[in-house]
Specification:
With 226 residues, the protein is α+β, with helices and mostly antiparallel strands. It has 2 domains: 131 residues, CBS-domain (Roll); 83 residues, ACT domain (Alpha-Beta Plaits). It has a 5-stranded antiparallel β-sheet with strand order 7-8-6-9-10, with helices on one face. The protein has a 3-stranded antiparallel β-sheet with strand order 1-2-3. Strands 4-5 form a two-stranded antiparallel sheet. The longest helix has 14 residues. It is elongated.
Length: 226
């Protein structure tokens, strides 16, 4: 999954010399938390966030941490005075997982998306949430099943073939090696929407045949007893 498929397009931008009041009004009116800062040439010069504006009110950029003793005070500050210069950026061909990792590690809320011609969008935390809920099928009411399996191709193949044979349509399959002993792996399977009776019957079978740790149906988590 690439950033270009999930980014927000039609992005509002602002120039470095604009008053921070303009940025504040733009964020408030559009319900957004960051705005890319674009030079007249079209290059991305920075990004300004609602956090940057909060830090400036009262501003650490003014003597004595007070707006009163500086003439126009906060109104004299420009976007370039508080923005993050040379921000982290990604391209439309960057994987969404990579973008999510940057947002997490750098503790930032958005990444300008730039191609060879300039800014084409922005990918934010909200876009990552939308990506996750879509690929897992949560937004369409899918059910999730969590297993611990032997770390072999045949073990996973057997489980997936079993589900297909029972008419269960798969949405997404994730695997992880966190929290399990060597030689095992955790497998998370999201399936397309099932009715209550089908889920109950399927769970009984899966508990007997595999190491089913829990399942999630209609937003409720049911842990298996051992």
């Amino acid at each position: 999954m690439l950033v270009g498929d999930w980014m927000t397009e039609g992005v509002l931008t602002i120039q470095p010399g604009a008053p921070i009041f303009d940025a504040m009004v733009m964020m408030r009116d559009a319900g957004i938390r960051q705005i890319p800062v674009i030079e007249a040439s079209g290059l991305v010069a920075g990004i300004v966030s609602d956090r940057d504006i909060r830090d400036a009110m009262p501003s650490k950029f003014l003597p004595g941490d007070s707006a009163a003793g500086n003439g126009e005070g906060l109104m004299s500050l420009k976007v370039k005075d508080i923005m993050t210069h040379d921000p982290y950026i990604v391209s439309p061909d960057t994987c969404m997982e990579v973008a999510a990792e940057i947002l997490l590690e750098k503790k930032i809320g958005g990444l300008p998306v730039v191609d060879e011609f300039g800014l084409v969008g922005i990918v934010t935390e909200v876009d990552v949430y939308r990506f996750l809920t879509t690929v897992t099928g949560v937004s369409k009411g899918s059910s999730q099943f969590a297993f611990v399996l032997d770390d072999t191709a045949s073990a996973l193949e057997e489980l997936l073939n079993d589900l297909w044979a029972r008419g269960v349509r798969l949405s997404t399959v994730f695997t992880s090696y966190e929290g399990v002993k060597q030689g095992a792996r955790r497998v998370f399977i999201w399936v397309q929407k099932l009715d209550d009776e089908t889920v109950e019957s399927l769970v009984l079978h899966l508990k007997k045949t595999y190491d089913l740790r829990y399942h999630v149906h209609r937003g409720e988590t049911y842990k298996s007893e051992f």
